[in-house]
Specification:
The protein has 13 helices and 18 strands. It binds guanosine-5'-diphosphate and manganese (II) ion.
C-alpha cells in the first residue's frame, strides 16, 4: 500500500527522523494559513499524489510570500498533475503539503528495500541525490552504494559507518547520520515497509540532516497487523476497479491490454497472461479469484472485468480443484444476468464437476465460446478480438 508524503513524514516524526516543519492543506486559503503559522519564507508547496517526479511536473513550488503560496496552491490543487511516473493522464491533486523551505547544501539519496535474491534488507544510498537519480543509476552506477543487512541480526554500527564513508559525509555528521539510519531501519522493520525512500535526504546550510522528501510503501500482506497505517489508505489514489476488487478479497490488477481474464490460482493466471501475449494480444488485467473462491467471488470478479471499458473480450480459464467447475459456472451466469455480457467470452474449464459446469453454462442460453485447451482458448479470444 502506498501512502502520501505527509503521512510518511508523520511516521518519520514518530521515529525521531528529522523532517521539515509543515502540514497538509486542502484549499489555497488553508495553505496560506499554514504558511503564516510557519512564520517565515520561503515556504514549499507540494502536491500530494501517489507518484514521484512531482518536481519535474511542476508539483513542487517554492513560495517567497503569502501571495506566492496562494498562487502556487491555486495552480496545483484540483488539477491533474502529470509527472514521469503518472502516465500522460496525470493524477488529480486533492491535497497539498505546505512546508518550511530549507537552505540546501547537498542532496543525497537514501532508500531501504527487501532484497529478495539475498533474503536481506538492502540500503541504497548515493551522493548524487535529487531529481535525476534514475539517470545516475543508469549512467554512473559507481555512485550508488549498496549495503546488505541480515534481518535476523539487524543493523549494526559498522553498516552506518560504511554508508557514511561511501557518501563521503563530514565527520561532524557521523553521529547524527548513524542515529538517522538506525531510526529509519527501525521504522522500516516495525511498519513492515516494502519500500522506504528519501530523495533528497539533504544536508542543510546549517549542517543538519533532514528528510526533504519521504516515500513509504507498506507490504499489503502485513496490513492486518498495521492497523494504524491502514488508516492512511487513500482510495482516491487507487484504481477504482482495484478498490472494488479488494472489497471482495480478489487479487486483481488492472493492466493496459484489452483481453480480460479470470483465472483461479496466481500461477495459472500468470501462465494465462503469457498465453494471451504469445498470441500477440495483451491482457487487460490480472485476476486470481483464488483456489477456494465461491460463487459470489466469481460473480464479482467477472462483473469487475466486464466493467472495464478497455475490455473487448474475456477469457475464463479455470482448473476445478477446490473451486468446482459448477460453482464457477453459477457465478458466471449470475454475473452475466446482472451485468449483461457485451463482449465475446471464451471459456476453458477442466477438473472437478466439469460436466456439470458445462451443462449449467449451456442451459443458461448465454453466448459463450468453449475452448478445448489453453492454446485453443487464447487463440480463439485473440482471433475474435483482434490484436
Ligand atoms: P519529487 O520530485 O516528487 O521527488 O519531490 P521532492 O520532494 O523530492 O522535491 C523535488 C525537488 O524540489 C527537490 O529535489 C529539491 O531540489 C526541491 N525542494 C523541495 N523542497 C525544498 C526546499 O525546502 N528548499 C529548496 N531549496 N528546494 C526544495
Ligand atoms: Mn523526491
Amino acid at each position: 500500500m502506498k501512502i502520501h508524503e505527509y503521512q510518511a513524514k508523520e511516521l518519520f516524526r514518530n521515529h525521531h527522523i528529522p523532517v521539515p516543519e509543515g502540514n497538509v492543506a486542502v484549499s489555497p486559503d488553508d495553505a496560506c494559513a499554514l504558511a503564516e503559522k510557519l512564520g517565515g519564507f520561503p515556504v514549499v508547496v507540494k502536491a500530494q499524489i501517489h507518484a514521484g517526479g512531482r518536481g519535474k511536473g511542476g508539483g513542487v513550488k517554492l513560495a517567497r510570500s503569502l501571495d506566492e503560496v496562494q498562487s502556487a496552491a491555486t495552480a496545483i490543487l484540483g488539477r491533474p498533475l502529470v509527472t514521469p511516473q503518472t502516465g500522460p493522464q496525470g493524477k488529480k491533486v486533492r491535497k497539498l503539503l505546505v512546508e518550511q523551505g530549507l537552505d540546501i547544501d547537498q542532496e543525497l539519496y537514501f532508500s531501504i528495500i527487501p532484497d529478495r535474491s539475498t533474503a536481506k534488507i538492502m540500503i541504497i544510498a548515493s551522493r548524487a541525490g535529487g531529481m535525476d537519480i534514475e539517470e545516475v543509476a543508469a549512467k554512473d552506477p559507481d555512485k550508488i552504494i549498496r549495503v546488505l543487512i541480515n534481518p535476523l541480526t539487524g543493523i549494526e554500527p559498522g553498516h552506518c559507518k560504511e554508508i557514511a564513508a561511501g557518501l563521503n559525509l563530514p565527520d561532524s555528521l557521523a553521529g547524527d547520520f548513524s542515529t538517522l539510519v538506525e531510526n529509519l531501519y527501525g521504522l522500516f522493520i516495525e511498519t513492515d515497509c516494502s519500500l522506504l525512500e528519501i530523495n533528497p535526504l539533504v544536508i542543510t546550510a546549517q549542517e543538519t540532516l533532514v528528510a526533504l522528501d519521504a516515500k513509504v510503501e507498506i507490504d499489503d500482506n502485513a496490513l492486518f497487523r498495521q492497523k494504524d497505517i491502514l488508516k492512511f489508505r487513500d482510495t482516491d489514489e487507487e484504481d477504482p476497479l482495484e478498490v472494488e476488487a479488494s472489497k471482495y478479497n480478489l487479487n486483481y490488477i488492472n493492466l493496459d491490454g484489452n483481453i480480460g481474464n479470470m483465472v483461479n490460482g496466481a500461477g495459472l493466471a500468470m501462465a494465462t497472461m503469457d498465453l494471451i501475449k504469445s498470441t500477440g494480444a495483451e491482457p487487460a488485467n490480472f485476476l486470481d479469484v483464488g483456489g477456494g473462491a465461491d460463487e459470489e467471488m466469481v460473480e464479482n470478479g467477472f462483473r469487475i472485468i466486464l466493467n472495464d471499458a478497455n475490455v473487448k473480450g474475456v477469457l475464463i480459464n479455470i482448473f476445478g480443484g477446490i473451486l468446482r467447475c459448477d460453482v464457477l459456472a453459477e457465478g458466471v451466469v449470475q454475473a452475466a444476468r446482472k451485468t449483461g455480457i457485451n463482449v465475446p467470452v471464451v471459456i476453458r474449464l477442466q477438473g472437478t464437476n466439469v460436466e456439470k459446469g458445462r451443462e449449467i453454462l449451456a442451459a443458461s442460453g448465454l453466448n459463450l465460446i468453449t475452448a478445448e485447451d489453453l492454446n485453443d482458448a487464447a487463440g480463439k479470444i485473440t482471433e475474435i478480438v483482434g490484436k
